[in-house]
């Protein structure tokens, strides 16, 4: 019950009291004035005292009930918000379990995010490997505008962008009016030119490392509050997990590809080297059995070229070993477990 409704109910009660008083005053006037007898007067005063007391108690009761109803409504809304947030997190976990494609999860959850925090567009900005640029994606939240997959949009630098400030501060940033920031930040200028007046950007953090931002934009000015940022933070954490999982999967895929290529290179080089040693051995036998100078000159050329090929194969083997070690170091630095014991260690740390 709103304050206006509560006042309306109290006004009705006191209006009825005032109406009854007016009717009684008219009746007394028509009857010749206020009753003179003490008994009747005492009854009237007592009745009025009871009515006024009941009216006052009823007004207070209405106020108490309205306050309780308002508290229940506030609790109900908070519970609904928590339920929506948990449903969004659960949906994202299911998507991550099926696929670690962060952009696909982003597209699938855009409508849920818009229900949690009303907005016109949901954006995702992912840092590249160098950490100097953002690749942005945009998802439309209305069913009639939705795409099958989010399309890569504008690439922004970390300098002179609100995105860069979010990554550096690792804190959500709310811009009430993009017109005020358009002159200083390129991404705010782009949003303002597209007709969006307010934006909220939340960092994607995984173990203290920023991998991107989750962005909500609205056409109305001052559309987002700190409570909205608090509601989006758990979703942003899950997005960060999905992004890091995708990066780890890609790193692991590169590691396995390099490992397979290295094994193939080492195996082939060993076979070629064995054939070269056989050629060199036969050339040595021919050189000893046939003293012809022309033949010996040709055999020496064959031996030199065979030795050159053997040296090239050795360089290939060394390069393959070095590349494999680099990829292994990168995978280890990224924290990709290679044994069940390492998984247990990660769980214990968390």
- CATH architecture classification name of the largest domain: 2-Layer Sandwich
- Biggest sheet features: 6 strands, antiparallel
Based on Cα principal axes, name the global outline. rod-shaped
End-to-end gap: 46 Å
Ranges where pLDDT stays below 50 over 5 or more residues in a row are 346-350
Which structural category do the helix and sheet elements fall into? alpha+beta
H/E series: HHHEEEHEHHEEHHH
At CATH level 3, the topology of the largest domain is Beta-Lactamase
Integer tally of domains: 3
Number of DSSP strands?
6
Strand residue content: 5-15%
Strand order within the widest sheet? 3-2-1-6-5-4
Q: What is Rg?
A: 40 Å
Using the coordinates above, name the CATH class of the largest domain. Answer: Alpha Beta
Q: How is the quaternary structure best described?
A: single chain
CATH superfamily of the largest domain: GAF domain
Q: Which bin fits the share of residues in helices? A: 55-70%
Helix segment count? 9
Residue-averaged pLDDT: 77
């Amino acid at each position: 019950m709103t304050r206006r409704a509560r006042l309306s109910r109290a006004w009705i009660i006191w209006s009825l009291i005032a109406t009854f008083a007016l009717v009684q005053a008219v009746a007394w006037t028509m009857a010749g004035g206020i009753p003179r007898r003490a008994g009747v007067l005492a009854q009237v005063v007592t009745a009025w005292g009871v009515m006024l007391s009941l009216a006052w108690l009823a007004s207070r009761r209405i106020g108490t009930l309205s306050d309780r109803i308002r508290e229940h409504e506030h609790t109900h809304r908070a519970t609904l918000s928590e339920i929506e947030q948990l449903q969004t997190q659960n949906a994202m976990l299911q998507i991550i379990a099926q696929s670690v494609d962060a952009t696909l999860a982003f597209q699938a959850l855009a409508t849920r995010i818009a229900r949690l925090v009303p907005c016109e567009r949901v954006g995702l900005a992912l840092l590249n490997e160098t950490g100097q640029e953002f690749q942005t994606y945009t998802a439309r939240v209305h069913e009639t505008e939705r795409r099958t997959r989010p399309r890569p949009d504008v690439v922004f630098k970390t300098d002179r962008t609100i995105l860069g400030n979010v990554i550096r501060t690792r804190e959500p940033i709310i811009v009430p009016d993009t017109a005020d920031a358009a002159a200083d930040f390129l991404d705010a200028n782009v949003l303002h030119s597209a007709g969006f007046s307010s934006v909220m950007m939340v960092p994607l953090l995984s173990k203290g490392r920023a991998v991107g931002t989750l962005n909500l934009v609205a056409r109305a000015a001052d559309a987002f509050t700190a409570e909205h940022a608090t509601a989006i933070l758990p979703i942003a954490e899950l997005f960060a997990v999905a992004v890091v999982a995708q990066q780890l999967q890609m790193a692991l895929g590169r590691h396995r590809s390099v490992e397979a290529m290295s094994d193939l290179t080492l195996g082939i080089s060993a076979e070629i080297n064995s054939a070269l040693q056989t050629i060199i051995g036969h050339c040595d036998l021919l050189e000893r059995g046939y003293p012809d100078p022309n033949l010996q000159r040709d055999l020496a050329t064959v031996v030199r070229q065979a030795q050159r090929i053997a040296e090239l194969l050795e360089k290939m083997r060394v390069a393959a070993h070095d590349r494999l070690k680099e990829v292994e170091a990168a995978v280890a630095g990224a924290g990709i477990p290679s044994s069940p014991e390492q998984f247990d260690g990660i769980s214990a740390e968390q």
